[in-house]
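Homework help board

Subject: predicted structure for assignment chain

Our instructor gave us this sequence and asked us to write out the predicted structure in token form, then describe one feature. I got the tokens but I'm not sure how to describe them. Can anyone check?
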Amino acid sequence: QQQTRRRVERLMNEMLEEYEQGAYYYQEVLRIKREIPSLDVRNERLFMGLLVYTGMRPEEVMGLRWEDVHLGKQYAEIKRAVTYPKKNQPVIKGTKTKKSVRTVILPKALVEILTPCAESEGFICGGEQPWTWAVMDNIKRRAYKKLRIKGFSNYDFRSTFGTQLKESGLSSAIVADLMGHADTRMVETVYARTRHEGVMKQLEAVEAINSGITADL
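My token output:
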């Protein structure tokens, strides 16, 4: 019972954390993606590329190591997360079991960002050790300023990724797998289902339903 209660509390905390965030508009996301390669600082390109293109949790981005990235096959394995309970020194938390390791797809555009910076080992956002909170925050702030991102947090890119997956027509189960959720409750509760863009993608289906009206008049 205690384990079940803790699991429910963790799920609710995740839902509240992501629910408070919003999804970027499609054109704004495209603009940001186009401008990431032009960032003049290597760490800014790496951090923003992983954040925007994968839908990874920010703590998963911070925990990703080069050994877990397979650029040629376009995927990475999430084996750990990095948190900052005191907003300073990083705390590294590995997955409990091998089954907890999940796969994240790396789109071609992200592979092109990562490849020139690839190393044989070490944290992508760090080296032997992950960045401290202060370093991470400074890199994020500078990148956000250059990309003209205002009023949004790191988690907004995850919410946007999940929302776009849903709007593309994928089932809740597949979206949950891609996002790393244990079940579909988060997908069905949190990610936007009624954005203007998502609704308008169904225009063709609605027209098909009504296609015979004019002919019958």
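Reply (TA_rk): Your tokens look well-formed. For the description, you could write something like this. The chain is about 50% helix and 10% strand. That's the kind of observation they're looking for.
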